[in-house]
Amino acid sequence: MTLQTSTSFIPEKYRILSGSALKVLAMAIMLIDHTASFLLRYYPPVTRAWFQIGSTSYSLYRVMRDVGRAAFPIFCFLLVEGFLHTHDRFKYGRNLLIFACISEIPWNFAQNGTLLFADKQNVFFTLFLGYLAFCLIDRFKENPTMQLVSMLALLAVSYFLKADYGYKGYVFLLIMFWLHQYKPAQALIGSCWLIYEWKACFAFISLNMYNGRRGFIRGKWAKYFFYAFYPVHIAILTIIRKKWFGI
């Protein structure tokens, strides 16, 4: 089943990635990033510089973190697709909020080793705020003033909540939503917004290879595995770190 027919800057014959393939790619990239961030940063051989370009020293740790920047744009893209094609928007949003709350437990342990709130909350909260914005934009599609008020109100929430990627991540979600039918513009404007994390811009290559098909991830269990991967892999990495490094 084809889900969308939006433009792309990549020729159609090279659009070989389904939604399921993008999900697996995003999870793999996130795992690389978090393995470096939550675990390998405490292992000196991994953080030792291999080479230097300008004033930046590159180690295995640095390369893994840079690769990991591409995960967030892919997850944002998938969230927009999920919103546009879900049969139950309330249930979709509820699942995001539930897993945001569940993820706080391993997230806080990974950040500060306790159940107490860390300095920032996990990325599910950023995705949830973006999803709420999508819902309100659609709800007030005949009332631009209320759309603007809704977006600004949630922008304020994202700023004070300090979830992962913060208000910048929330604005990026809006860019992805408003331009979901215009892939080249989405890539250009999205990349300009992400200039502070320019490595993330490479994600737009894979996003423009999307063929609009759902792919092989189907059924309730597969869907919830995709949700659960985030808190579960953080918990596993934190447990390994505690065992290996006592941190």
Automatic annotation (TrEMBL):
It comes from Blautia segnis. The chain crosses the membrane at residues 21-43, 67-84, 96-117, 123-140, 152-179, 185-209, 221-240. InterPro entries: TraX. Keywords: Membrane, Transmembrane, Transmembrane helix. This is TraX protein. Pfam families: TraX (PF05857). Coiled coil: none annotated.
